[in-house]
Structures are given as C-alpha cells and as structure tokens.
Design goal:
globular, Nucleoside Triphosphate Pyrophosphohydrolase, two-stranded antiparallel sheet, seven-stranded mixed beta sheet, 30% strand
Length: 156
Amino acid sequence: MRSGAGIALGAVGALAALGFWATRSGAEIGRPGAGMVVVKPLERRVLLLRRGPTDPWRPGWWNLPGGGIEPEETPLEGARRETLEEAGLRVGRAKQVHKILGPGWSFCVFATTDWSGDVQIDFESDDFAWVTAEEARSYPTLPGVQAAIEKALRSV
C-alpha cells in the first residue's frame, strides 16, 4: 500500500510525464495551467526559457512561458499573464493549439504571432533562446514542449 506522500509524489511524476509543469509544493496539483508558444513568423522561431539552477523541478531544462491559472482567469488570460511575467512580452491574438489532460488537471497551450516587447526573463529562468522546431529537438525540453511547438508552427 502506498502512503499519502507516495501518492502525491506519484501524481507529481504523472504530471511531469504528461505535461509541462509540476508543483513545487504539492499544493498546485489539480490547478489548471496554460502556456504560450510565442512565434517569430518570418523566421519560424519560437521562444524557449531555461529554468533557473535553483528550480526544484528540472533546473536547466527548457520550457515555454506558462504556469498555473488564477481562479478568475480563463486559460488564455493565464497564458498571456504568464508570458508577460516570465518573458516580458505582451500577447494579443492567440489560439489554442494543444491541451494536455491529467487526472483532475489540464494544461492548455496557445500559439501567437501577435506579440510585442523585448524578452526580459524573470527570476524563474536564467536564459532564453529563439529556436526553430528542429533546433528545439536538441534542447532538453520539458515533456510536451516539442509537440506543442510543432502543433503551433503548423497552425500559424
């Protein structure tokens, strides 16, 4: 029989295997999330952020801007807010290109070519890169990132 802590760790592992993010404290399990594939359309490049060295879950791995949705937000509003907070970019039009479902949670991924600003990463990341889908394959990305990039580039 598994203990409660073992079940919680198993749930976090399932989140990690199926999606983009997992909880830092266990408190976010079940909280919906959203992320954004920011695309430079002429160059067919997308923005990746590298998780900082102090991140408790996969430091040094590359990810899309994104995170948990606040209770009053729609998934798109959450993805826009997270992109502004984590990358300093304002997003206009965006469309959903991917959705990951788990037991009691979901993560919606949007794509946009309608954005403004210069990338300014926050404390969660220590680097960023504009990469093609092919280049992204050589980066250690979080689970689901490559599929989201490919779907985003097909849809824009």
